[in-house]
Amino acid sequence: MPDKVKIGVYTCYCGGNISHTVQCEQVAKAMESQPDVVVSRTDMSLCSDAGQSQIEQDIRELGINRVVIGACAPSLHEATFRNAVMRAGLNPYLYHHVGLREQDSWVHSNDCNAATCKALLLMKAGIAKARLLQPLEPIRLEAEKQALVIGGGVAGLRAALDIARQGLRVVLVEKSPFIGGRMAQLETVFPTDETARDLLRGLIKKVVTHPDITIYTQAEVMGVTGYVGNYGIHVVQHSRGVTEENAEALMVTCTQEAPNEFNYGLSQRRIIYRPYPGCYPSLPAVDWENYNGEPISLNGGPPQALRDALTSIEVTVGAIVVATGFDPYEPRQGEYRYGESKEVITLPQLIRHLALSKGNNILEWNGHSVRDVAFIHCVGSREIEDVNEPQTDGQVNNYCSRVCCAATLHMAEELRQRFPALNIYDLYQDIRTYGRGHEEHYRGALEGGVRFVRYHGEERPQIISASAGDTHPVLIHVKDSLTYNEELEIPVDLVVLAVGMQPRQIDDLVNMLKVSRGSDRFLLEVHPKLRPVETAVNGVILAGTAQGPMNIQESISAAAASAAKVVSLLGRGKVELQPFVAAVDAQKCDGTGACIASCVYEGAIALQTFHENGREVKRAVVTPANCSGCGACVSVCPNRAIDVQGWTLSQYEAMVDAIATDIPNLTEA
Fold first, then answer.
1. Which of 92, 133, 378, 513 makes an SS bond possible with 86, Cβ 3.0 to 4.6 Å?
2. 321 and 360: one domain?
3. Do residues 375 and 497 both lie within one domain?
4. DSSP letter string over 267-334?
5. Which residues of 146-185 are buried (b: 16+ CB within 10 A; e: fewer)?
6. How many helices (H) and strands (E) in the chain?
7. What's the pLDDT at 297?
8. pTM beyond 0.90, yes or no
9. Exposed, middle or buried, 214 (CB in 10 Å: 0-12/13-18/19+)?
10. How far apart are CA 43 and CA 77, in angstroms?
């Protein structure tokens, strides 16, 4: 015979966040009269050690076997109270959390009486549910102690190294032929002014020499199956097209060229190439996307076309780190006259141009010396609807890319140091040098004579070509809000667009992983503060700029957090998931399949055939690891044969009935 239900009810003041609006003592008094309630208490802070100790003591001494707590959001302290309940010897899922702060006191702060009445109803509903709670156990799964890292930029490399150092195996998949990502295209990094490639080379060396890290370059993830702890990954890898023996000869013999994406199209490169000296892998690779199939004759032999041999690779991993990086914003044709005037370039192009022209005492561009240069901030960032032209998906990039201000000021300082006679203009909306050491770049530029002009986003600078015979090829027309919207005409030799970051085109991967994007189209975390690197898909973790604009320091920090999350998940070789998943009542299920049609999670539920009493029957079977507990299947089942554990239809009905009854009289309470 089941034990008699004994409920302990606890109303938290939340340090005043609740009690300043809700009359907590009256709520607690009113709950004492509810059936099956053994004790009803208040506390200034139930999450404190003293508050938890009181709950544990009541469970032990009063025989409480159900707990209802009215407090802040469950996302903050639900785990805290579950652990307290469990320490007292009670199943942790015999506890229900009522959100009195976010759902009540904060939204009704101007009406204490209404807030208190609502609190009474919410607590009554919680008690009604608690009566029907049943002990549950976490879903425990064997976990493969191996992780997949998608992306070989600085974030992916850091995550892979940190994971491997904790004893887990790592498979790193990089789409391009070489690892290093965008950092390899930089010369120095702010705020330390260290050489980017030297820092990167040290990280790459540690990664490639670690025995537990396997790297696949020129490879893509083409399929994902399974669930957290046991993901099946299908990878397809292109061949490099050359060998150690013939690589150098082929690089000389094959003369076909393509735009050099490493230099942002400023130069051409051979189809068989290395992006820069000291890259990894050192073996050149064929650019299969641009190779035209022209036969090549090597050492006097018969001409032969290069062939790409695809290799299929199957791996099993417990977790996936998405570190696919970003793309610099590419201005549209004609945006600030980009693509129309050769004197309008992007900041990444200028960085590469300076790297290619080291040692020059005069800055030259397009065959002429540069005396005056202007930077324009927020190109492709902080765009405004009805002012900026939408992107191809119909949206404007209304987010701040965060890195551009400091990068632009860092470049202005570098130009001032290398070319002291250069006149530099900085056209900005707002200077956002938020990071440690970044404000110094602003001060350095200001003290170095950089001239700042502030424009409004609704009135962007206009770029026009100067007339023949003018001293400068380009004129900028802009209203300067620092001088009460004075209209300025600035003649310059070069315009540099400080372009922002935009998300990579990884739609196929997003669909495979079932992860979500934010309104800015970057990959979305569960919660920016409480779960900053986790996605809504168990075992899929974010790292670096795949998640949003970040500088290198922030990418490294995010990668370290991602690695820590993977290690905590897989380190024991097992994973535990919450038991709030769908469960099928085999006696009621007649295999209609409506639940399967309603489910949006691949592999969460399927029809299986069983043999009973000499006949075949079909029933729905849930794979708990793939189920999110969303309840879509519950709503469509005609037989009420499926329910979500911990949130059953009976529990919902009991909560609604409790809310629909009369409110206890506050004056009597």
1. 92
2. no
3. yes
4. SEEESEE-SSTT-SS-S-EE-TTT-----B--TT---B------EEEEEEESEEEE---EEE--PPTT
5. bbbbbbbbbbbbbbbbbbbeeebbbbbbbbbbbbbbbbbb
6. 15, 36
7. 87
8. no
9. middle
10. 15
Q: Residue 386 corresponds to which tokens in the numbers above?
A: 């009805």
CA distance 211 to 376: 46
Instruction: Sort strands 272-273 and 486-492 into parallel, antiparallel or unpaired.
Output: unpaired
The pair of structure tokens assigned to 269 is: 């490169």
Judge whether 247 lies within some domain. Answer: no
**Residue 513 parent element (H or E):** helix 507-513
**pLDDT (average), residues 241-260:** 94
Say which CATH number the domain at 629 has: 3.30.70.20
CA gyration radius, the chain: 31
Say yes or no: 532 and 553 in one domain.
yes
Mean pLDDT of the chain: 95
480 and 514 belong to one structural domain:
no
Q: What is the CATH number of the domain that holds 410?
A: 3.50.50.60
- Tokens 């309603």 sit at which residue? 598
pLDDT at residue 663, rounded to an integer:
60
Q: CB under 8 Å to 342, separation ≥6 — which residues? A: 366
Distances (CA, A) of 249 to 291, 303, 346: 17, 14, 35
115 and 22 assigned to the same domain: yes
Q: Domain range holding 588? A: 582-645
Q: Count of domains in the chain?
A: 4
pLDDT at 668: 46
Say whether 220 sits in a helix, a strand or coil: strand
Residues 483-511: b if buried by 16+ CB within 10 A, e if exposed: eeeeebebbbbbbbbbbbbbbbebeebbe
445, 413 in Cβ contact below 8 A?
yes
Residue 561: name the closest of 231, 323, 206, 316 by CA: 323
3-state SS record for 1-21: CCCCCCEEEEEECHHHCCCCC
Digit-coded pLDDT (tens) for 513-548: 999 999 999 999 998 988 999 998 889 999 999 999
pLDDT digits (tens, 9 = 90+) for 603-640: 899 999 998 888 889 999 999 988 989 999 999 999 99
